[in-house]
From TrEMBL:
Domain of life: Bacteria
Domain notes: Consists of three domains: the N-terminal catalytic domain, the editing domain and the C-terminal anticodon-binding domain.
Keyword Zinc in annotation: no
UniProt subcellular location: Cytoplasm
Keywords, sorted A to Z: Aminoacyl-tRNA synthetase, ATP-binding, Cytoplasm, Ligase, Nucleotide-binding, Protein biosynthesis
Protein name: Proline--tRNA ligase
Membership in a protein family: Belongs to the class-II aminoacyl-tRNA synthetase family. ProS type 1 subfamily.
Organism: Pseudolactococcus laudensis
Subunit structure: Homodimer.
Main location, first listed in the record: cytoplasm
Function: Catalyzes the attachment of proline to tRNA(Pro) in a two-step reaction: proline is first activated by ATP to form Pro-AMP and then transferred to the acceptor end of tRNA(Pro). As ProRS can inadvertently accommodate and process non-cognate amino acids such as alanine and cysteine, to avoid such errors it has two additional distinct editing activities against alanine. One activity is designated as 'pretransfer' editing and involves the tRNA(Pro)-independent hydrolysis of activated Ala-AMP.
Stored Pfam families: HGTP_anticodon, tRNA-synt_2b, tRNA_edit
Enzyme superclass (EC): ligase
Length: 617
C-alpha cells in the first residue's frame, strides 16, 4: 500500500485536549479523529488494527462454537420495558421517537434483543445450548466523555450471549468463554488479569472482568527505546532523565478501576469486590464500663480520635443508608471505608444511597457526627463489617449531638443483625486465599463475562419445554469485549519514548507507537529516502513486491517529503519493522530497524525476506 494513497493526517504536536497518552498518540499519529464529543472516526490505520483484532476474536469464538450474527442498533423500547431496564438504566440511555411517536433507543447492549430473538425461535430444550455474538457500535450518552476511546458515546463492542436448558451447560460455556478471552488477549500481546467483577446493571451473579494493566511509571526500562548510539540508560544524563520523568507525569494514568491482586497467588479482583483474609481472634479482653462523654463540635472519626485520645481503630463508624426505601445502619471500624458495591450486592437492592439528614434524625434523634448503634429501635436493620465483631471497648456516637460513648461492647450495649465483608480492602493486607499480600494496580476494562441466569428470560417470557414437557425459563450468559477501547489499552501498554543522541552530542526524546506484531496495521514500513532517486524507487518497489509475496503487509512511504518528516511519521505510526532505502541502494543494501528494541542492521535485499522471517519468529 502506498502511503500517498492513505488518509494518515499526522500532527507535529500532541493535541491539547488529550489527557492520556493513548488518546494523544491515536490523534497525533492519524489513527482517529473526533467527530463530536465522545464520537470518533476510525481512520484507515485504526480500522486495520480493529479488523485484525476482530479476526483474532472470530477465530477463538469459532473454536468454542459461537456463531456471529448482526442485530440492529436502533431498538424498539418495548423490549426494554419488558425487562424493566427502560426506566432503571439511567440517563446514559439514548431515547428517541419515530415519526409515529413510538419509543426507540440506541442500543447500549443487546440482552433484550437477543432474548427476544431466541424466545421467538426456540421452544424446546433440544435446540439448546445456543451461543451467538455480534460486533457492532453501541451507544451510551456519557455525561462527560473523556480519555479518547476509553469513555465515549459511541463505541465498538463485541457482545455475546449463550442460552441453556440447565446451569451445568451455562457453566461449561462460561469456562469456554473465559479461556477464549484469555487466548484473545494473549494473542493481542496484552498484559492483563482476569479478576472477580461486579455484575452491576447487567444483572446475574457470577462475573469476571478482564483488565489491561496500566504500566508502572517509575520503571523507565518499560518506556524507553534507545537509539543505537546509546548503549544503556545509565549513559543518559540525569537532567534528560528528569525531563523524561516529567513528560511521563504530564499524562494521567489511564484506567477506570483499581485492581487488587495477590503477590503470592492467582487471586485478583476489582477493588470494589476485593476481600482480605479474615481470622476472628479468640483472645478475651475485659469489657469496661460504658461511659458517656461530651464531645462538643467533634464529628469526624479523626476529630473524635484526637479529642478523646483513642486510636481510630478503637472507634466505630456509623453510616445510614436507604436501600429500596428501607433504612439500613452500617457499622465499620473507624479506620475502614465502606465498599458500597459490597453493601448493594449483599442487600440485593436496586437502589442504595446515603440517607438524608431528615431520615437519619427520625431513627437516631441526632444529626451526622454523633450517630451510634447504642439504643437503636429493634426493628432497624444493623449490618456490621465482620471486623467490628473483633473489637471491644469501642468509642461510638451517643445519638445525642455533642456526645459519644466510650467502652461500648457488642451484645451488651448494642446489637447487630448480621456480620458481612463490607470494607474496602487495603494494599498490603493478606490476600483472602492466604497466598501472599494484596498489591494494587490501575487497569482498563477490556472484557467482562456474566452468568445472567434467568434475569431476562423470566421478565420477557423466554421459555422452553424441558424433557418432561414443562415450560422453564431459558438460562443465559452474557460476554462482552470493548473492541474500540482495545486501541487505547494497547497503546497505554505499548507507547514508547524514543531516546537518541545527535551528532552534536545532545539528547532528544519523542513519543512513538509500538504496536505488537499481530495487531500493527502493517508489518513493514518501507521508506525510500529520496523519491527522485530512480534506483532507490525501483529497489523499494522490488522490496514491496517480494515482502508482499512472502505474506507480509507493507506500507511504502512514496511521498515527496524530507527524510526527517518520513522518519518522524514512521515513529508515530509505529509499525514493527522499518526498511530504509538510502545511499546504498545501488549496492542493494538497506537498513532494517526493529521498533520494539531500536536495533538496526544492514541487510542485502536478496536476504531481506528471510531475515525478516527470522526476526518475526
Amino acid at each position: 500500500m502506498k502511503q500517498s494513497k492513505m488518509l494518515i493526517p499526522t500532527l507535529r504536536e500532541m493535541p491539547s485536549d488529550a489527557q492520556v497518552i493513548s488518546h494523544a498518540l491515536l490523534v497525533r499519529a492519524g489513527y482517529v479523529r473526533q467527530v463530536s464529543a465522545g464520537i470518533y472516526a476510525y481512520l484507515p490505520l485504526a480500522n486495520r488494527v480493529l479488523e485484525k483484532f476482530k479476526n483474532i476474536m472470530r477465530e477463538e469464538f469459532e473454536a468454542i462454537g459461537a456463531v456471529e450474527l448482526l442485530a440492529p442498533a436502533l431498538l424498539t423500547a418495548d423490549l426494554w420495558k419488558e425487562s424493566g431496564r427502560y426506566e432503571t438504566y439511567g440517563a446514559d440511555l439514548y431515547k428517541l421517537k419515530n415519526r409515529d411517536s413510538s419509543d426507540f433507543i440506541l442500543g447500549p447492549t443487546h440482552e433484550e434483543t437477543m432474548t427476544a430473538l431466541v424466545r421467538n425461535a426456540i421452544t424446546s430444550y433440544k435446540k439448546l445450548p445456543l451461543n451467538i455474538y455480534q460486533i457492532q457500535p453501541k451507544y451510551r450518552d456519557e455525561k462527560r466523555p473523556r480519555y479518547g476511546l476509553l469513555r465515549g458515546r459511541e463505541f465498538i463492542m463485541k457482545d455475546g450471549y449463550s442460552f441453556h436448558a440447565n446451569y451445568e451447560s451455562l457453566d461449561e460455556t462460561y469456562l469456554d468463554y473465559k479461556q477464549a478471552y484469555e487466548n484473545i488477549f494473549t494473542r493481542a500481546g496484552l498484559d492483563f488479569k482476569g479478576i472477580i467483577g461486579d455484575g452491576g446493571a447487567m444483572g446475574g451473579k457470577d462475573s469476571q472482568e478482564f483488565m489491561a494493566i496500566t504500566p508502572d511509571r517509575t520503571d523507565l526500562s518499560q518506556w524507553l527505546i534507545l537509539d543505537k548510539s546509546i548503549a544503556d540508560i545509565s549513559e543518559i544524563p540525569d537532567f534528560v532523565i528528569k525531563d523524561i520523568k516529567q513528560e511521563l507525569s504530564n499524562w494521567l494514568i489511564a484506567g477506570e478501576d483499581t485492581i487488587a491482586y495477590s503477590d503470592g497467588s492467582d487471586y485478583a479482583a476489582n477493588l470494589e469486590m476485593a476481600s482480605t483474609e479474615f481470622v476472628k481472634p479468640t483472645a478475651y479482653t475485659e469489657h469496661l464500663e460504658l461511659t458517656k462523654v461530651a464531645t462538643p463540635d467533634v464529628k469526624t472519626i479523626e476529630e473524635v480520635s484526637a479529642f478523646l485520645d483513642v486510636p481510630t481503630e478503637q472507634t466505630i463508624k456509623t453510616l445510614v443508608y436507604n436501600a429500596d426505601g428501607e433504612i439500613v445502619v452500617v457499622l465499620l471500624r473507624g479506620d475502614d471505608e465502606l465498599n458500597e458495591v459490597k453493601l448493594t450486592n449483599h442487600l440485593g437492592a436496586d437502589f442504595v444511597e446515603p440517607a438524608t439528614e431528615e431520615e437519619t434524625i427520625k431513627v437516631f434523634g441526632a444529626t451526622f457526627g454523633s450517630l451510634g448503634p447504642v439504643g437503636l429501635p429493634e426493628d432497624v436493620k444493623v449490618i456490621a463489617d465482620r471486623v467490628v465483631e473483633t473489637i471491644v471497648n469501642v468509642t461510638v456516637g451517643a445519638n445525642e449531638d455533642g456526645f459519644h460513648y466510650q467502652n461500648a461492647n457488642l451484645d451488651r450495649d448494642f446489637k447487630v443483625t448480621e456480620f458481612v465483608d463490607l470494607r474496602t480492602a487495603k494494599e498490603g493486607e493478606p490476600a483472602p486465599d492466604g497466598g501472599g499480600h494484596l498489591k494494587f494496580a490501575r487497569g482498563i476494562e477490556i472484557g467482562h463475562i456474566f452468568k445472567l441466569g434467568t434475569r431476562y428470560s423470566e421478565s420477557m417470557g423466554a421459555n422452553v419445554l424441558d424433557e418432561n414437557g414443562k415450560a422453564k425459563p431459558i438460562i443465559m450468559g452474557s460476554y462482552g469485549i470493548g473492541v474500540s477501547r482495545m486501541l487505547s489499552a494497547i497503546l497505554e501498554q505499548f507507547a514508547r519514548i524514543n531516546v537518541e543522541k545527535t551528532f552534536k552530542g545532545d539528547y532528544k526524546f519523542s513519543w512513538s507507537m509500538n504496536f505488537p506484531k499481530g495487531l500493527a496495521p502493517f508489518d513493514v514500513h518501507v521508506i525510500p529516502v529520496n523519491v527522485k532517486d530512480e534506483t532507490a524507487v525501483a529497489l523499494s518497489a522490488e522490496i514491496v513486491e517480494t515482502l508482499t509475496k512472502s505474506g507480509l503487509q507493507v506500507l511504502e512511504d512514496d511521498r515527496a517529503e524530507r527524510v526527517g518528516v518520513k522518519f518522524a511519521d514512521s515513529d508515530l505510526i509505529g509499525l514493527p519493522v522499518r526498511v530504509t532505502v538510502g545511499k546504498k541502494a545501488a549496492d542493494r543494501i538497506v537498513e532494517v530497524k526493529i521498533r520494539a528494541t531500536g536495533d538496526t542492521l544492514e541487510v542485502n535485499v536478496d536476504d531481506l525476506a528471510e531475515t525478516l522471517a527470522i526476526l518475526n519468529q
